[in-house]
Design brief:
Shape: globular
Order of helices and strands: HEEHEHHHHHEHEE
Oligomer: single chain
Structural class: alpha+beta
Strand content: 5-15%
Number of helices: 8
Helix content: 40-55%
Number of domains: 1
Length: 218
């Protein structure tokens, strides 16, 4: 009989369908950059709980959610949400709106300035809400899949739905800019690109459904 170290194996985790999980709650937890709260995922129900930070829990002698089988959701901080704002601003076809949004992202207080700027463009505000939600939920689904709480196939299907939503938003807010072209089709659409540029409009190149570069004669 061979004696030695036993290989540590990750215990099977309860897999649930995405539709049975509080995805928006997971998304909020992952994007929470405040650091004053702790977020927990309950594998047995698919729900999310928000609690005080660890030091506050000890101070006020709160119960430990881990003892109830809940799992900590570690926040990504504000980087991912900031990247969403930058990507959205780059997608906007209205030059004035795009310039103002990009300026709003410079320096401290970017999140507040970005929201304040969007308030002046109601149509963009609606599209931004959809765009931000789809991105945040995509990160949440990826986390659930990586942690073993969602099946790969189910996760891929739900991610594809969010990707389609993102594509629709990019097409809607970027339309005034001129032409949207996937980088893989540049060669076959070159005549369209030339006509668009000659007409004084920009051409936005998309890679993986996201704005990647802009061609402009200005």
């Amino acid at each position: 009989m061979h004696h030695g170290a036993v290989n540590a194996r990750r215990e099977p985790r309860p897999v649930r369908p995405v539709l049975g999980i509080d995805v928006s709650g997971v998304a909020e937890a992952l994007d929470d950059g405040g650091g004053e709260t702790t977020w927990w995922y309950d594998p047995s129900t698919g729900q999310v709980e928000m609690g005080v930070s660890e030091w506050m829990a000890e101070e006020f002698d709160d119960d430990d959610p881990a003892e109830r089988g809940l799992v900590t959701i570690e926040s990504f901080g504000s980087r991912a949400a900031y990247a969403d704002m930058a990507s959205f601003a780059a997608s906007v076809g209205d030059r004035r709106a795009a310039d103002l949004l990009q300026r709003a992202l410079q320096g401290r207080g970017a999140f507040r300035r970005f929201r304040d700027t969007l308030a002046d463009f109601p149509d963009l505000l609606t599209q931004w809400s959809t765009y931000a939600g789809a991105n945040a939920e995509s990160r949440a689904i990826e986390w659930l899949v990586d942690e073993g709480y969602v099946d790969d196939a189910d996760g891929d299907a739900e991610l594809a739905t969010r990707a389609a939503t993102l594509d629709a938003v990019v097409a809607a807010v970027g339309h005034p800019r001129g032409l949207l072209v996937d980088v893989a089709t540049v060669t076959e659409r070159w005549q369209d690109i030339e006509r668009t540029l000659d007409a004084g409009h920009d051409v936005t190149l998309l890679r993986a459904g996201r704005p990647w570069a802009t061609i402009s004669l200005a």
